Amino acid sequence: MVALAALALPILLSAVLVFLASSLVHMVLGYHKSDYQKLPEEDKIVAALRQANLSPGLYHFPYCTHQELKKPEMQEKFKQGPVGLLSMRPNGVVNMGKFLGLWLVYCLLVGLFVAYLAAHTVGTGAPYRHVFRVVGTAAFLPYGVATLVNGIWKAEPWRMVFKEAFDGLLYALLTAGTFAWLWPR
C-alpha cells in the first residue's frame, strides 16, 4: 500500500495537466464549436422567458407528475411538443473564472479519489504499465463514462456526448501517465 500523501504531486500535477489540456481542446482544437446552436427567433423566445421571470434552475416541459403523465390531455401536450429541458443560470455575464475554478477543483477531486484507489490497489515500485492501467481506468470513469448520462437523461446530442467522452479519454490518459511517471519506487 502507498501512502496517500506520497501521491500529492501526481494529484496536483495531473489536475493541472488536465486543466491545461481541456483549455487547449476547447480553445485551440475547436471541435466543440458546433456543440451549441442558436435558437431560431432568439429575441422572441428570450423575451418570453424574461417575462416569465424564471429563477435559476432546471425546467422540464411540458411539466407533469408521474400520475398526470397517464392523462390523455398531458400525452397530447407531449405529442404536440415542444418537449425539452431548460437550464437557467443567474442573470449577468458568464463568470468563466468561477467555472474554471470549479473545473480545477473537480480535477483535483478526481485526482484525489483516483490516488486513493491506486494507493490501495497498486504497490510501491509497481511497473509503469500497471499503474497506468489502474489509474487510467479509474480516471476514465469520472472524465469519460460519467458524460454518457447527459445523452440518456438530458437529451444532449450523442455526437456531443461522444466528443465529451473522447475528451475524458484524453484526460484519463494524462492522469494515468502522470501517476505512472511519479509513482513511488
Write the layout of secondary structure elements.
Elements: H1 8-29, H2 42-52, E1 57-61, H3 72-80, E2 84-88, H4 96-121, H5 128-143, H6 148-153, H7 158-182
Antiparallel strand pairs: 1-2
Structure description:
Helix 1 crosses helix 4. The longest helix has 26 residues, at 96-121. The protein has a two-stranded antiparallel ribbon. It is elongated and about 65 Å long. By secondary structure, it is mainly α. It contains seven helices and two strands, in the order H-H-E-H-E-H-H-H-H.
Shape: elongated
Biggest sheet statistics: 2 strands, antiparallel
Number of domains: 2
Number of strands: 2
- Average pLDDT: 94
Element-by-element helix/strand order: HHEHEHHHH
**Strand order, largest beta sheet:** 1-2
Would you identify the regions where 5 or more consecutive residues have pLDDT less than 50? none
**Number of separate helices:** 7
Estimated share of beta-strand residues: 5-15%
Measured between the Cα atoms of the first and last residue, the distance is 12 Å
Task: Tell me the helix content.
Answer: 55-70%
Radius of gyration of CA atoms, rounded to a whole number: 21 Å
Structural class: mainly alpha
